[in-house]
Amino acid sequence: MDAIVTTSLTRRFGEFTAVEHVNLSVAPGQFYGFLGPNGAGKSTTIKMLTGLLAPTEGSMQILGLDVATHLVDVKRQIGVVPEGMALFGRLTGSEFLNFAGRMYGLDRDTAAQRTAEVLDFMELSAQPKTLVTDYSHGMQKKLAMAAAVIHGPKVLFLDEPFEGVDAVASGTLKAMLQRMIARGVTIFLTSHVLEIVERLCSHVGIINKGRLVAQGSLDELRSGVGAAEGKMSLEELFLQTVGGPRNAVQELSWLG
């Protein structure tokens, strides 16, 4: 049984089709990178998979559960770091994580224990009375990640988790994610930093203009475009799949 499956997943906004007949298949324990240009439909897909947005057509299953009919059961078993993080700025980090743990069904003592542990792990425990609104962007990213994993999810959805995060914090997050994969957690990641995706992910899906144009392991995708094994970077593969950038420099007369 796959951890994530979509069948003809489609989302329209009026006459605009953001996601069109996408068929995803993510095995349990995979670190899956979901890539695409800006506006390709990545965040819309994650919003549908996590129950924040209803599809126009198609179906989704998470851990064998139909998202449309078992949404609460699905949400109990997933963690999400959304594009906008959705934090409560007038709480302290400890208050926010305790709240998140309780909402996921943890008892009071377990929520408090895990809050203290994850705050220490994320190096956020030095200023316990600081409000979330006064956190730096990178600190807020780490707090959002902490809230997403406090209940021990089986599937973790990450929308640009490394954006605005410094190298030290990024290393901490990567190490945590790799340990989760080693324990059998499935991770579904979107990121524009292709070097990170290439380093972390075993499988990749590429969406362009709402359509899934490639899916598989990196070696499978490389062989699909005729590349010698190990000779094409993910960036080169991505650009070849979605179409390389136009030569903008030549189109700007003052830069010629």
Name some characteristics of this structure.
Rossmann fold, 256 residues, 23% strand, six-stranded mixed sheet, single chain, alpha/beta, 11 strands, 10 helices
Question: What report would you give on this structure?
Answer:
This protein is α/β, with parallel strands linked by helices and 256 residues long. The protein has a domain at 4-77 and 153-255: Rossmann fold. Helices cover 37% and strands 23% of the residues. The protein is built from 10 helices and 11 strands. The protein has helices at 42-49, 71-76, 93-103, 108-121, 137-149, 167-182, 194-200, 218-224, 234-242, 248-251, and strands spanning 4-13, 16-22, 25-26, 31-35, 57-62, 65-66, 78-81, 155-159, 186-190, 203-208, 211-217. The protein has a 6-stranded mixed beta sheet, with helices on both faces. A hairpin with a 2-residue loop joins strand 5 (57-62) and strand 6. Helix 3 (93-103) packs across helix 4 and helix 3 packs parallel to helix 5. The longest helix is centred in the C-terminal third of the chain and has 16 residues, at 167-182.
- The largest beta-sheet arranges its strands as 7-8-9-4-10-11
CATH superfamily of the domain at 4-77 and 153-255: P-loop containing nucleotide triphosphate hydrolases
Strand proportion, as a percent range, falls in: 15-25%
Outline, from the CA principal axes? globular
Structural class of the helices, strands and pairings? Answer: alpha/beta
Classify the helix fraction into a percent range: 25-40%
CATH overall fold name of the domain at 4-77 and 153-255: Rossmann fold
SSE succession:
EEEEHEEHEHHHEHEHEEHHH
CATH class of the domain at 4-77 and 153-255: Alpha Beta
- Mean of pLDDT: 91
Distance between the termini: 55 Å
Which stretches are poorly predicted, pLDDT < 50 over at least 5 residues?
none
The helix tally amounts to 10
CATH architecture descriptor name of the domain at 4-77 and 153-255: 3-Layer(aba) Sandwich
Radius of gyration: 19 Å
Main β-sheet: number of strands, strand sense, barrel status? Answer: 6 strands, mixed
The strand count comes to 11
